[in-house]
Amino acid sequence: MTMTPERWKQVKELLCEALDMKPEQRSAYLKHACGEDLPLSNEVQELLAQQESAGPAFLKEPAYAKVLHDVTQQEGLRIGQVLGSYKLISVIGEGGMGVVYCGTRADDEYQRQVAIKLVHAGKDFPSVISRFKNERQILASLDHPNIARLHDGGTTAEGAPYFVMELIDGEPIDQYCDHHKLSVEARLRLFLEVCSAVQFAHRRLIVHRDIKPSNILVTHDGVPKLLDFGIAKILDPGNAEMSQTSLSLRVFTPAYASPEQHRGEPITTATDVYSLGVVLYGLLAGHHPYGLAQRTPEALSRAICDREPERPSSVIRRTETGSGDKYLTVTPDAVGAARGCSPERLRKRLTGDLDKIVLMALRKEPERRYGSIEQFAEDIRRHLAKLPVSAHGDALGYRTWKFVNRHRAGIASVALASLALIVGTVVSVREARIARAERARAERRFNDVRKLANSLLFDVHDAIRDLPGSTAARKVLLDKALEYLDSLAGESGNDPALQRELATAYERVAEVQGDFLNNNLGDTGGSLRSNQKALVLRQQLVAAPGSTWQDRLALANSSRAVGSELLATGDASHALDAVRKAIALSEPLHRERPTDTQVMDELAYDYEIEGHIEGGQGFMGVGLGDPAEVMRSYRQAVETEEAWLRLAPNETSALHSYEIDLLFLADSLKSSGNLREALADYSRALEIAKIVSQRTGSARRLRDVAVAYNRLGEFYETERDWRKALSSDQQSLEIYRQLVGRDPNDFIMKQGFAIALANVGLQKLRITPKGGLSSIYQATEMMEKIVAINNENAQQRGILASMYLVLGDAFKIEQRPADALREYQKALGVYEKLYAGDPSNTDALDSIAACKASVGGVLLKLEQTSAASRNFTEALATIDHALTVPRPSEDVLHTAADSYAGLGELELRAADRSRTDAAGQKAHWERARSFYVKSLDAFQRIPPTQQDDPRSSELYTADDVKKKIKLSDDFLRKTELAMKH
């Protein structure tokens, strides 16, 4: 009969109890428990018989996998069903909790096949539902290139939970290695990628608990993917252990389970270390550590708990005969051939380090295995680099201790005969014991401090990272973690794992000190110095033997971070060198690993920062002024992120990066006059920013929404639509008001608030005279305080200078030229200091020219003609070289147009003063016309949509200049006619 969920619940409970009993006790128990329900008793007896007869097949699968077969026979009926956006097209396989289907998009938005895991027909079992939802939650938190990625999830119409994940087309890692005849070195490097995935999970307090070859699939591209977190567990941060007794069934796979799992003891991350050790044993030696042929589950469990495994180098000599088609006879020749060498050569290759490494991972006591997956992987890396490994540490003492426990009687008689010798050496032995104890205490202290530092650096810091008001607290945590790691660095020598941790600590401290793109405390100089320390460590790691592609990726990240901070301090030329070194690392990595999203993320970020340095929008007063290169860099960033999104359409980090670079690309499009495309990108970026903010609830992502509104406001300024600009700027201001209220110590939020407040004030002033002057005043005062605290940040000084310009414009609108002159001169002083700090900073140089043109305009209004002429002339001299390039920036062209027009106006005034001197008057009109023609030429080189610059109320327009040219022509024509008569 078909087993119903209710019937299965009864069977399961009885089966659990029976499996925990000795075989001879089961019959009496079932007779008492089932009473007259003979079909129920028969069901359980049949399952117990299947378990006894399954042999190796049972040992390689969880105990509960077979007993659900009757329930899951009905799953094939779901083919064709639509779940959310996906349609079920075939069954891939089944496990203890659910069935895995191959699915495809049902809405024809795009073509992609996925794996869809759906809970079994027994969906009303609380334990099954709980584990299933636990797996879905765990996968949602694991974004790693070697872990199968979660795409979506939901529940069916019947209430059964499901989730949609990356479809992995690959082979189990042991089969892949054998089919491709991978060498020992190649197997070790592949295994290191698996270690990276498990370590990533452990850092998020997740223990897999069922690591085995069938849960590690290798794709056709040679990328291992860790699957099936169905019985994984999230550790309590306050207690690194967890009990297994809460599981109603022993859901682990016996052959790969640790001794503590078999004994039902608490589980720690050491459990995964053991399972990985079993996997590595098979990859290297071609056998299971305890042999699976003809073993019963009870015999295997006893062996795992009590018997020491044979060395991998020795076991390859064994011939092991399996049972069934799946478990073929394993011979020394077959094992050697699968690894591309003879059995004897393989034995020599495994002897020594590899024997020690594998056996250390397989120690019975969890505390005597590797302390972490990172330590396990580090020993493998050191072995590959021909460096000493830690697994050699106490092998002799451990084996001696085991020998004594097995041969107590024999040793006692030998001890009597050896007493005299022992007495003679007791002093030296005692001293050696004391020394070992001291070393052990020192090692425990070292490991305890290291564990504490990493807990502060990752667990505690990440837990509070997005909490309102946490910036200062994060700095305290990171400083303490850095202090601990600094103290360990002096004791550890050249420990690569510790160097990586220390580099990460410096990078995180730098971020909270003054990363200009993240929540920070306004210490730009400190941030640069911390990033430079991290860079030195990353360079050492890449140069050392045994470095990995992850080390190269981390070096690219570090180099780019240094470039970002150099840009913030105003050193644009060195910033560009640093970021191009990052690109030189990330581009080859992308070619090597074209589907690795970590690499794509870094590459896109590198291109973005390159664009900023080349003169990207929004980086006031700092940049190299190369608009063509800016556009190229931002397009490369966006194209990289679009490729990333094709692989992971709903990945939040990909959407965030894409949204940011769409804004920068839109800035460049706006500057080039492509307003329609720019508006489309601004609008798209704003919508994505809202989606990402709603998903994360993060202050940083909410800030992205404010930034997008700010950019829309700038766009509407370009179109002289002051009311739309005001609406966008007010939206931005309101968001920043919330963010500053949450964390008053966060300088980047304060800066954003000041900018938004100034923008709102300027738009109000344009709509209603005197309507926004107080807001601009307040914003400028806020920015002055920020700069006073963090004077090393050149970009913030540039922002302050731009606010002085806005204030100057406001005073011009209010007909207060003396006040306007004061603010323009303040801005000029800031830009001159920025340029003095880095003569390659063409953005600062262009801003100096713009300030001089504005100063000249005010001086002209104040009738200080000589000073006005000097400022206009100096402005033109400053941008003379910039005007010779094929396509000068519109800011440079506006400055030229204003300065030439200003000089023309001065000549007209001089002509008016020379009415009694006809020849002199004519000369002034001719010079005026010449200046106006040059001004018009500059205007005509600006894209038509940008010709009427909205930044000031009294800048000359192209129409103004045309009228002046006509006026000059009319006067000169009349003068010529008068002279003829």
Provide a compact summary of the structure:
The chain is mostly helical.
Notes on the protein architecture:
The protein has 981 residues and is mainly alpha-helical. Among the domains are: 223 residues, Orthogonal Bundle (Transferase(Phosphotransferase), domain 1), CATH 1.10.510; 30 residues; 139 residues, Serine Threonine Protein Phosphatase 5, Tetratricopeptide repeat (Alpha Horseshoe). 65% of the residues lie in helices and 5% in strands. The protein contains 39 helices and 11 strands. The chain has a 6-stranded antiparallel β-sheet, covered by helices on one side. α30 runs antiparallel to α31. The longest helix has 46 residues. It is elongated and about 130 Å long. The relative contact order is 0.04.
